[in-house]
Amino acid sequence: MNQWAVEIDNLVKTFGDFMAVDHVSIQVSKGEIFGFLGPNGAGKSTTIRMLCGLLTPTSGRASVNGFDVATQPEEIRRSIGYMSQKFSLYDDLTVEENIDFFTGIYGVPRERRAARKDYVLRMANLSERRSALTRTLAGGWKQRLALGCAILHDPPVLFLDEPTSGVDPIARGDFWNLIRELSSTGHTIFVSTHYMDEAEYCHRMALMYRGKVIALGTPAELKGAETGHTLMQLDATAPLETMRALDGLEGVRDVAVFGGGLHVTVDDPDATAARMRQALAAKGIEVRRLERIAPSMEDVFVAMIEAEERKAA
Question: Domain range spanning residue 112?
Fold first, then answer.
């Protein structure tokens, strides 16, 4: 029995001379939350549309639920759930009417429709809003309704393409709780995002950049890959002057603004910290905090993307 819900082997998609997806290979286990991360334009949505049977690959092969994306797109579309940031709910229908409409679209058997509707209303915490017009819902509630409508037919694999785009942080957290619940009941979730903090919620992830997968692994594995250097938090007066003072300083590999301070990547933390203090003191800049910190996923991804850009240059 095949353990993979999604298999991608050397998948390529070109539009004229532009290669949007460049020889991507990934395997996703059943029941896994798999994150597809990267900046806008990295090729995430194009890959997902091929996996959903909505775009034909230029070359390579991929299968979802055992169905081939090139030759069995109809079977794939029947066996998956798909939600994007542009998921088409009908604003002039109530919550309940939207659910009824999508049970028909997804061909949910008549004898199961009432039970599936109740499940979705409970899961999305929309029971008390069932009669509300969809246009009156806040963004986070619309998002929950869209997710509910995408799983009415109980698909084993769910594709979520930038589903939290434009939603406030609290609603994003609530949405990820729903995703974890779905995963715990055996659903495979393939989710793309450009919010790097959401990577922490995934079992494994791929980082895409310019059509290629440049990193693949668990959050811990990807953070561990960055252990060749040390990350330091630097809080000082005059951040811009601080960045200029550290530019080209021996032992300093990179300086990036992070919140109200700076993240500085260094080779030898003790020796470099002493040099940094000296260089900043010479410019009359006061150091309020300088200490080693564990890298966030955002630090890891920024470092990986910058490494790719250096290679390309």
Answer: 4-223
